[in-house]
Amino acid sequence: MSAVRHGPTLSALAAGTATGALSANDAVTGALDRLDETEPHISAWVRVDRDGALRAAGQLDSAPAKGPLHGIPFGVKDIIDVGGLPTECGSPLRRGRTAAADAPLVARLRQLGAVPLGKTVTTEFAYFAPGPTRNPHDFAHTPGGSSSGSAAAVAAGVVPLALGSQTAGSLTRPAAYCGVAGFVAPAGGSLDTTGFVGLSPSLDTVGLLTPTVADLRLAHRALTGGHGPADPPEPPARPRIAVWQGTELAEVSADMRTALHRTAEQAAARGAELVDIDWAARTPGLAEAHATVMAYEAARALADEAATPDRLSAPLNQLLADGRIIPETAYRHARSVAERGRAELLTLLTEVDAVLGPAAPGAAPRGLAATGSPVLSRPWQLLGLPVVTVPGHRDGRCMPLGLQLVGHPDRLEELFTLGHAVEQSARDAAPARSAGDPAP
After folding, report:
1. What average pLDDT does this structure show over 31-50?
2. Residue 170 appears among annotated catalytic residues
């Protein structure tokens, strides 16, 4: 069974509310109706603020438009504070803990006219223990994690925008598994994690999920006060793309390898120059350093929670136990690996436009007891680089396959533009579907 619907994109919905063709109440009511239709199947939401959302929509409709996201309903991962709602982090340890104020990212979206619909399911403290969420494309498959509810809510057409976060592969993986676009903000950028319950301070970053890459660009420009033309610029005529297979880190499925190869071929046919890099000499050390940094910092960030191990999952207890025994010298070495690696990749990303690779080893695995492997995100997350997850491909079972584009933190417009072109190419090449097939 599938709960996927090809609903309005963020761009289309924002255009409708901006012109007055659609009221904020219409947009929010439509989202709530779709939520009621899909939630029994996918369990993407931990709390729905129905009354608060409708009240906010009514206030918006009684005043001039507030901003470029006027009336847009959005979801918030339940590690991010929304004033007056609990931030429970998928754990009984935080049950009922109500946030006194919005996280700055949520407050900024409100300033832009957007309406928080409620809190979406997260894995326990944004680590591995899954919540109840199911993949909208096939309820027997994981949606990924930890931003599971946010990705599923966008894929099901409930909201055109949802907030997530990433520490390892917490946003890239669910975006890929659920067939939506995802953006991992660069470390140290204008989108910060104040008001988030963190897992690893040097690795935690903001994430956005939308139906398309063009929607990511719209949301990011609105949040950061982007200037210049609203329409995306044309991609470079001859982009230089470093293709990364990911096979030195994971067993990548045949369907994923085919999707990557097809995308690279299409890019080359349109004038792109494909650049070969010796990734095996780079990424394994980065992935290992990421695991060290994450465990070491998590053990200290969640030291209070570790005092009640009987109320934590086995995976989280293991992470914290591993982190407690990592020597400080090993942690400092891992951080130095990150610093050197970042300098090297930033140099590479002045010579190429992006790194193109698989966002996950394959499509979403069957089963709900685990959320899949984050290994193909670990190197880029360690380096604090921006990543766009590009939807559009499918495997032999019609499950989504996501690719990722890794870019330079100072060239985000170019990254979104290239991601949009790659997405359009994938969708244009998608085989025709019969009437009974799931929607993309």
Report:
1. 98
2. yes
